[in-house]
Amino acid sequence: MPTPLYDALKDYAERRPLRFHMPGHKGKFMPAPELMNLAGLDVTELPLTGNLYTSGPPFDQAQSLWAQIFGFDCCQFLTGGSTMGIHTGLALCARPGDRILMDRGCHRAAFHALALLDLQPVFLERPWLEREGLTGPISPDAVDQLLIRHPDIKTICITSPTYAGVLSNIEAISRIVHRRGGKLFVDGAHGAHLPFLGLAPFSGADAAVVSAHKTLPAMGQAALLFTNGIDPDRVRQMASVYGSSSPSYPMMASIDLARDYMSGEEGRHAYRRAACRVFALRQKFPSLGGRLALDPTRFTLKVKDGPSFARALEGQGIFPEMEDGGHVIFIATAQDSDEDFSRLEAVLEALRDRMGEGPKLPAPPLPERVISPRAALFASSRLQPLEDSQGAVAACQIAPYPPGVPVVAPGERIGKKELAYLKKIGYNMLSEVRVTV
Questions:
Q1: What does the mean pLDDT of the chain come to?
Q2: Whole-angstrom distance between the N-terminal and C-terminal Cα of the chain?
Q3: N or C: which end of the chain has fewer CB atoms below 10 A?
C-alpha cells in the first residue's frame, strides 16, 4: 500500500536541499549514530512535506488510509500520545461547562480534560469482578439507566480496552447514546492493533483515540484520533490547540509506515501468530479469561504477589508492562518472536508455584466530590504526606501508575476508605500529595 507521508519526506531528503529552516541539525548531523538515520526525515512544514493542521497532501492521503481501516470519516495524526487525543476528542464532543458521563476507570488524561474544559463529571462505575480482582466491562444497561436519570448529559466517555485487555460493547453502547442524542468518545489507547486482527472495537463511536506506539511498530507518543460526523477542519483546529506547532515528522512517518506494515501479509500474520501464542499461554497458566471479551494479545497473569513476581521476571531479563497485587500484565505484539514467547513460557513454568489467586482486593472507592475538577486543579494548594491527608481535598490526582487511573481525583475528598484502599494496594503512603488550602 502507499505511504504518502513517508514518501514525501524521503523524496525531500533525496533532493539534498539546502535546509535554511528548522530543525537545527539540517538533516546532516545528530550527536549519536543511532539517530542519524532519522535526521534526513526530520523536517518542518514545507510545500513538499505538508502541514499537519491544514488540509492538503501528503497528510490528507496518509490519514485517509487510516480512517478507511478503522471505519471512520476522519483521522488525525497526533504527536502528543493519546493524552492529546483525549483532550482534543472531548473538546470536540462537549462544550465547556457541560456535564458528561465518564467511566471512572478512565486514564488521568481524561480527568485533566475535565479541568481544562470545565466539565462536570457524573461517574459511571465499572462492575467489580471479585473473582478476578479487576474491574469488568461497561454495561450498556448501566449507561442507559444513567442517561435516563441525567437527560441533560450528551457526552459519554468510556475506556475500551482496559489495561488488562477487557473490551466493552461499544457498538451496543453507541446505539443507546445516539438514541438519546448524545456523542460517544472512546479512549482506545491500548487498541490500535485490534482492527488489524479483524475486530471492530470502536464501531458506532463518534470519536476514538488510539496509541499507535503502544501496540504497533511506531515511535513513542505516536497516536491517532478518529471521528465521525465532525467537520475535519474543526478536528484539525482543535488538535492544534492541544498539540505542538512543531510536530515530529519522523514520528508521523512511523505512523504512516506502521499502517503499511500492518496492512500487509507480514504484519497481519505476525499479529495473528502473537494472538495464537497468547491464547496458548492463557490455556497453560492461570490468567484472565472466561466469558470476558478480551484483547486477543493482552496476557493478564494471575499471581499470588504481583510485585515480587514482576521482580522475579526482571531478574530473568523479562520486563512486563505492569503489575498489581494479584496480576502481572504483558503486552504482546507482532514484534514478539516465537523465540521470545518460548523464553517467556519457560520462565513462567519455573515460577508456576507463585501463580494463582492473589490477595482479595476491594473494589476501588468512589470518593466524595467537594469542588469541581477545574477549581481544584487551579486552587491554592500545598504538599503534605498522603498518610496525614485524611479529610483534605485533593488538588492533584492520586493514581497508581501504571495504569494511571485515579483513586482520588482533583476536587475529591481523601477519606478514610480511600486511604485504606491505597494502603491495601501497596501505594506509597509516605509520598507527598497536593491538597487545597
A1: 96
A2: 57
A3: C
Residue 236's contacts (CB-CB under 8 Å, 6 or more residues apart) are 52, 53, 54, 55, 76
CB contact at 8 A, 204 and 171: yes
Three-state SS at 240: helix
Q: How would DSSP label each residue in 309-347?
A: HHHHHHHTT---SEE-SSEEEEE--TTS-HHHHHHHHHH
The answer to whether 436 and 393 have CB atoms below 8 angstroms apart is: yes
Q: CA 40, CA 421: separation in Å to the nearest integer?
A: 51
Report the alpha-carbon distance of residue 433 to residue 299 in Å, rounded: 33
Q: Is 80 exceeded by the pLDDT of residue 1?
A: no
Given a cut of 90, whether residue 425 has pLDDT beyond it is no
Apex CA 392: angle with CA 390 and CA 395, to 5°?
130
At residue 401, the pLDDT reads 81
Q: Which three cell numbers stand for residue 354?
A: 507463585
Contact of 192 with 216, CB cutoff 8 Å: yes
Spatial neighbors of 276 by CB under 8 A, at least 6 apart, are none
Q: Give the integer Cα–Cα distance in Å for 48 and 11.
A: 9
Cα distance between residue 434 and residue 307, in whole Å: 26
The reply to whether the predicted model has a pTM over 0.90 is: yes
CB 107 within 8 A of CB 85: no
> What cell was used for 355?
501463580
Reply yes or no on whether the pLDDT at 400 is more than 90. Answer: no
pLDDT on residue 289: 84
pLDDT of residue 131: 87
Q: Is the pLDDT of residue 198 over 80?
A: yes
pLDDT at 402: 79
d(CA 260, CA 2): 7
Residue 160 cell numbers, joined: 475500551
- Least Cα distance to 355 among 347, 365, 366, 363 occurs for 347
Beta strands in 34-170 (DSSP E): 74-78, 99-103, 120-124, 128-129, 134-135, 155-159
Q: Retrieve residue 209's grid coordinates.
A: 483515540
Tell me how far apart the alpha carbons of residues 235 and 249 are, in angstroms, rounded to a whole number: 19
Task: Give the residue-averaged pLDDT of 111-118.
Answer: 96
